[in-house]
Design a protein that fits this description.
With about 475 residues, the protein is of the alpha/beta class. About 35% of the residues lie in helices and about 20% in strands. The protein contains 20 helices and 18 strands. Strands 3-4-5-2-1-6-7-11-12 form a nine-stranded mixed sheet, sandwiched between helices. Strands 15-14-13-16-17-18 form a six-stranded parallel sheet, sandwiched between helices. Helix 15 links the parallel strand 16 and strand 17. It starts with a strand and ends in a 7-residue tail after the last helix. The mean pLDDT is about 95. The chain binds adenosine-5'-diphosphate. Adenosine-5'-diphosphate binds next to helix 1, strand 13, strand 14 and helix 14.
Length: about 475
């Protein structure tokens, strides 16, 4: 089974969110099931610098400049096809935004080019390697199934995964011509989305199968409230849409062997975690206090993540003797809110604004609880890292957060199966109740410890999800191609 994965991010080369983690972990997880996955990735500077043994395999004119495809790898299991198109991708920093913090004005061309090349490979343009399946991720790869549907030649099967429906890749109608899209596809039954070119919309219409990253999110996005204007289409394709909950890379996220964690620990003894807590407190200038419930946030600071709810509940957290550590970057008003709170409460609230992968590991190891109060959350990864690190997740009961955490209600506590706390709906009041419950449980060390251990032994790796992706690929391909 040969699969071309098409993505705009891949950990560890380029990452703004969970998509990178998933794209980085899937090839290895699938390799152990006999799937040969290659990943098509834009040649941003970080990618060009990180890929080993890159060999040119193809060259052509593409979206107003010369482009090459380079074959290389970054790990034994991660084989890349890098789209080296300097006129589109030789720009440092964030993959989508220019230095002014706004989308690059030619993003339609940049990710149109990615999708175009994916479609060409999916219709057999690459000598010696023809995929059975093209697996496109998010809007940046959304036009690949569109072009393939219109190719008029034998093609690979297509799968499109939605990592976040909020990002749809919408561009003015004239870009259809600029991109060379088939004009007959600019309609409701095609890539047109409310008068614009919709990269994701087109992919959702044309891909053979659709997936998203948790069963609950798969249901939510078929409703008007959560479907972001695409619920009708998604509902009509319900039979082709499945939710497959993400795993996490258990080697990168292993509290017993994490090079970013000063005192490693395993579920057999949590002694190291106590040291990691004071190290984190010391590093952030928080009072070194083993008894204070240290709540962490590692997140993009956006409305989706519900962190304004937390701002409103800071008085409660402080009144109960808790501490808060925030690692994030995003909207200035949220940063300002947390910065102000930290300045007003030195030693109790600390923030680090920016993106810092090593520090995110220390947060997971050193904190007692990880808070994810999202308004919607396709899957969410930080609560899974929390489980693995014995850092009790406190989450809104939405999307993947609903699917991955067992709430500490009375029955779950009595049966010893609770792994965290859930609250619903995502409101200030419900978050307040969840925090109150967290402090009550924190005051019962044996109960808290049991939740930690239960979480640490949950299966959060990729095995299960990888098998489900393989089953999906197999359902789309003739038996001869199946691994
Ligand atoms: P999303 O993809 O919506 O941002 P996820 O929970 O799926 O949310 O994935 C977020 C990923 O980004 C996690 O791996 C998390 O640890 C990481 N992350 C988010 N913000 C930061 C930050 N400021 N520094 C380091 N890592 C971060």
């Amino acid at each position: 089974m040969r699969v071309l994965s098409v993505t705009s991010e891949l950990f560890p080369l380029i990452k703004t969110g969970g998509l990178a983690d998933v794209a980085g972990a899937l090839p290895g997880a699938l390799a152990s099931l006999g799937v040969e996955m290659r990943t098509l990735l834009p040649g941003y500077p970080a990618v060009m610098a990180g890929v080993q043994g890159a060999q040119p395999i193809h060259e052509q004119e593409l979206m107003g400049g010369r482009a090459r495809l380079l074959a290389g790898r970054i790990a034994p299991d991660i084989e890349l096809i890098v789209l080296d198109a300097p006129h589109l991708f030789a720009r440092p920093g964030n993959p989508y935004l220019g230095p002014d913090g706004r989308d690059w004005p030619d993003n339609h061309r940049r990710f149109g080019a990615l999708s175009r090349i994916a479609a060409d490979i999916g219709t057999g343009s690459l000598p010696g390697w023809r995929p059975d399946v093209v697996h496109a991720h998010d809007w940046q790869a959304g036009l690949a199934p569109v072009w393939m549907a219109f190719a008029g030649v034998p093609r690979a099967a297509t799968v499109l995964t939605i990592h976040n429906l909020a990002f749809q890749g919408l561009f003015p109608a004239w870009t259809a011509h600029d991109l060379g899209l088939p004009p007959e596809g600019f309609r409701i039954e095609g890539y047109e989305s409310w008068g614009r070119v919709g990269f994701l919309k087109g992919g959702l219409f044309h891909a053979d199968r659709l997936t998203t990253v948790s069963p609950t999110y798969a249901r939510e996005i078929q409703t008007e409230a959560e479907g972001m204007g695409l619920h009708g289409l998604l509902h009509s394709r319900a039979r082709d849409l499945v939710g497959i909950t993400n795993g996490i890379d258990e080697e990168v996220w292993d509290p017993a062997a994490d090079r970013h964690v000063p005192a490693p620990y395993a579920s057999s003894t949590l002694d190291g975690k106590a040291e990691d807590k004071w190290r984190l407190q010391e590093r952030l200038g928080l009072a070194v206090d083993p008894n204070a419930l240290l709540v962490a946030v590692v997140s993009r600071l956006t409305e989706q993540k519900g962190l304004d709810l937390l701002l409103a509940q800071l008085p409660l957290l402080l009144a109960r003797g808790g501490q808060l550590a925030v690692l994030g970057s995003g909207q200035p008003w949220l940063e300002a809110g947390f910065r102000g709170a930290a300045e007003a409460n030195p030693g109790r609230i600390a923030c680090f604004f920016g993106y810092d992968e090593p520090l995110s590991h220390l947060f997971q190891a050193g904190a007692d609880a990880i808070l994810v109060p999202s308004r919607f959350e396709p899957c969410g990864l930080t609560q899974l890292y929390g489980l693995r690190y014995g850092t009790v997740p406190i989450v809104a009961r939405v999307g993947g957060l609903a699917d991955t955490i067992v709430d500490a209600n009375e029955a779950a506590l009595a049966d010893g199966i609770a792994t965290g706390l859930q609250f619903s709906p995502p409101t200030v009041e419900a978050l307040g109740t969840a925090l109150e419950r967290a402090f009550e449980l924190w005051a019962q060390p044996t109960v808290w410890r049991r939740m930690q251990l239960r979480g640490m032994t949950r299966k959060v790796g990729w095995r299960h999800a990888a098998q489900r992706y393989l089953d999906l690929y197999r359902s789309l391909t003739p038996p001869a191609a199946s691994a």
